[in-house]
């Protein structure tokens, strides 16, 4: 059995890697992947605490977050394809919906 502290450290590392990717990268696809890493870090935290307490609420919450992440990825990619068709770029700095 893996100690809860190890699970939480791994979850924190995943979350921080995702945070670094969101802050430092300019490619929208990389940013979306980094958001998914952050959500997976949160899922690991929920499951780790739920296992430590012997409850199932963390697993149920984690399942809802996975469903939310799938919907976010589908909608995000659809928006990205629409923007790419008009702007011909996926660089965050070059995408501005306020200008013509």
3D architecture notes:
By secondary structure, this protein is mainly α. It has one domain: Helix Hairpins (Orthogonal Bundle). Helix content is 78%, strand content 0%. The protein has three helices and no strands. Helix 1 packs antiparallel against helix 2 and helix 2 runs antiparallel to helix 3 (57-87). It is elongated, with a radius of gyration of 17 Å. The termini are far apart. The model has no long low-confidence stretch (mean pLDDT 92).
Structural class by secondary-structure content: mainly alpha
The CATH top-level class label: Mainly Alpha
Binned strand content:
under 5%
Average pLDDT rating: 92
Element string (H = helix, E = strand): HHH
Radius of gyration: 17 Å
Number of helices: 3
Blueprint of the fold:
Layout: H1 4-24, H2 28-53, H3 57-87
Keyword list:
Helix Hairpins; 3 helices; single chain; mainly alpha; 100 residues; elongated
Question: In short, what is this structure?
Answer:
The protein has 100 residues and is an all-alpha fold. It is 78% helix and 0% strand. The longest helix has 31 residues, at 57-87.
